[in-house]
């Protein structure tokens, strides 16, 4: 039974199956006429060649999906404090949909709220105004000049051997009144720098270098702005604290429509429980599977029409947006996944996600073609043919090649024209086309 069903799903087998059914019906109909004359073995009926607008399509099925779509669940245990949305509401990315009571969750989440405030303050301090950058520029210039001055002085002391020097001698002398006093005598001279002078100069240079480094770091941080290491580290602290605090809420990850809400105020929820289904219903698509015999005809951009089992009377349109070139075996047949992106749906139409979608992909635009009744096509070892009735009543064999089936007609190519009369013959030697291979 599975083999028969799989064969019926194959479009070529199904179409040729219709041919066989039509032939059987015509045979039974003709048999009714021939019963009046049991001796007659052949009945002839006249039909005409007609012109039709025929296109080529491929039929398949899949399910209606939305992108993006998210099933949002809880990341911690707690008690629901607020429910801000209901099914059908439209929300924006970052909106809080449902919140928990902070005291009903873990202590780490509560402490993260304080950590978040401190981290945000630190980040704000780092991302200061342009005035601070201007002052940092001035401070850096002053520090550079001070450092250069101290460096030049150290080099002067180390290299010049004729440095002005002085020393002071202190001694005590007796005054005229019989007392004593200190006497200071200073001597001026030139020579190499003393050890004490070099030590003091190098200490001052080291201090200037430290002040210069501080000024440089402050300038670099302010000049780099959001890209500075300090700002990046501060932002990481904010993100970590925010992620923990976010466990208190169900937050919309994108703009979309709320499809379902499972929680109510006062509910006790647990980690991993589903809370909200959210989807962007403006971006709908269908993934369907096309048989290997048809996939070569499917091209990106092919137009498609879609009907839904769950919503009668609604016709959606779209186009092929992706074709997976890697096939997979499904019920013994090789199939290729084809994605059809649907056009925006106007109006307030209920479109349940997951419903079965019937897809008709247009692989060839409709064009004028000739068609004949299915039963008019004969078949022998040379191929398919029809009998054309000439003006004098005689018949001429014309070879044809059959194509798409439209109702009880089949498109044909051959030396025919619109309005040609054909002879439909039913006799014991008629052979219907073989649906499992060959004509």
Characterization of this structure:
With 439 residues, this protein is of the alpha+beta class. The chain has three domains: 2-60 and 367-426, conserved putative lor/sdh protein from methanococcus maripaludis s2 fold; 63-67 and 281-358, Efflux pump adaptor protein, beta barrel domain (Elongation Factor Tu (Ef-tu), domain 3), CATH 2.40.30; 70-280, no CATH class. 29% of the residues lie in helices and 40% in strands. The protein has a six-stranded antiparallel barrel. The radius of gyration is 46 Å and the shape is elongated.
Count of alpha and pi helical runs? 6
Strand order of the largest sheet: 2-13-17-15-14-18
Oligomeric state of the chains present here: single chain
The count of strands amounts to 23
Q: How many individual domains?
A: 3
How much of the sequence is in beta strands? 35-45%
Can you summarize the main beta sheet?
A: 6 strands, antiparallel, barrel
Bin the helical content.
25-40%
Radius of gyration, in angstroms, nearest whole number: 46 Å
